[in-house]
Amino acid sequence: MGMTAKAAGLLAAMITTAALPATAYAARCGNDAGGFPAWVEAFKQEASARGIDKGTLNKAFANVGYAKATIRADRGQKSFKLSLEQFMQKRGGATIIRRGKSLKQQNAALFNRIESRYGVPAGPLLAIWGMETGFGGFLGKEHTLSAVATLAYDCRRPEYFTNQLYAALQLVQKGILSPSARGAAHGEIGQTQFLPANVLKYGVDGDGNGRIDLVGSKADALASTANFLRGHGWTPGAGYQPGQANFGALQGWNAASVYQRAIAIIGAEIDGN
């Protein structure tokens, strides 16, 4: 669906704000819950000075707390260290392929429309959809804003997740993200698990209802995923196996090589390549 000049300008402004480098922290990062409340108050002052309205900040942080489950998940990503065969088995690769082929047939018109617009075939989109949430069956149970705020406070990657937190606040301010939203442990949103800044940059209205809903609309989630891949260099008609032109776009989706190869394998099986 096309975007008006006004909407495009607004989105560009939102992305610019979200992508601003983190300023000097008014409160220090921490590796436990002790300093989190003080950090939140300092961050809210900083965010207000950078243009986030106080109403949004009060709504967004009303129920934010230190997310211990997020820290556990961040420190324990062991599945990415598995062999490809082990990873495929752990993630249920055979089941994703089987269900993916069926869903491709059931949603043929949607996938044809997405490929026509973005140049991305059904296979890799279904592979990502299946790997991330079991085709929308499990979107995660962690409070999204708590997860992102905790990682912004945590000393491991504060600058990266501070930018994600600003993006999340933009989404709240624009009514795209509910302050009570729940999702994956690192604050990923929706059926294919977009981080907040990627929702701002690549989120699209795939079902034509005038709004972006990556949780409730599979069309929005899949079209946004295709838009992400196109934004990372996807070339229509080119291959996406290792060494081929579009494998780099899959690398943009996830930094783990085992995950990239799994998407390529599962996608090819679904596409019949």
UniProtKB/TrEMBL annotation:
Residues 1-26 form the signal peptide. SUPFAM superfamilies: Lysozyme-like. It holds the Pfam family SLT_2. InterPro entries: Lysozyme-like_dom_sf (IPR023346), MltB-like (IPR043426), SLT_2 (IPR031304). The keyword Lipid biosynthesis does not apply. It comes from the Bacteria. Keywords: Signal. The keyword Phosphoprotein does not apply. Residues 36-240 form the Transglycosylase SLT domain. This is Lytic transglycosylase domain-containing protein. It comes from Shinella pollutisoli.
